[in-house]
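agent> Task received from the user: take the single chain below, predict its 3D structure, and emit structure tokens. No templates, no multimer pairing.
agent> Plan: (1) validate residues, (2) run structure prediction, (3) serialize to tokens, (4) report one or two observations.
agent> Step 1 OK, no nonstandard residues flagged.
tool_call: predict_structure(input=
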Amino acid sequence: MNTKFLDYWHWFLFGSGDKPGYRRVLNKWIIVHFIIGISLSLLVQITLESSANTILFPLAGIFVALTFAWAGHTMLMQSREIEELTRYHPGGFAEYVFVYQTAILVILVTLVLWGLAGLKIFDLVWPTSNNKILYFTVKGILFALSSMTLRECWHMFMGAQWMLLVQREIRNRGLSHKVGS
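)
tool_result: status=success, residues=181
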């Protein structure tokens, strides 16, 4: 039995008939995220630890809660209509499942890194605020990841809503074909 379609990391690196999963994150929008990250690094003049503890770490918790709430729509993904839809996608059903998993991965990576910032790892251990270039780089990456996290939460919400609309459309078309026969 070929189990490559069950392997998230295979999908992430090589894809399952469509583009590799990492291209869902590393795409043209990465430029926007880094512009946001650099801009916030210039505008926010407090330490990473203060940023993490005051604003971004609690906000990331809200992002995770929102994402898991929408990820609870797995029942929708198991519907007959969505199963039908996935037959026409190059990556198949695995593509839909792994896209959600990738969004959660981005959120969790962001949470862990902001957690490290909250523990003063970047302020006291590495790269320390004494090395301005490395500190600015880390700060920019953390803010860029926060921007990516916001985008992934929005995509989770949009994906669930889109599947609801598609499910209804497929169901209605199926009923209209039966009535018209």
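agent> Step 4: summary for the user.
Helices lie at 8-14, 29-43, 48-71, 74-77, 80-86, 92-118, 121-125, 132-180.
agent> Done.
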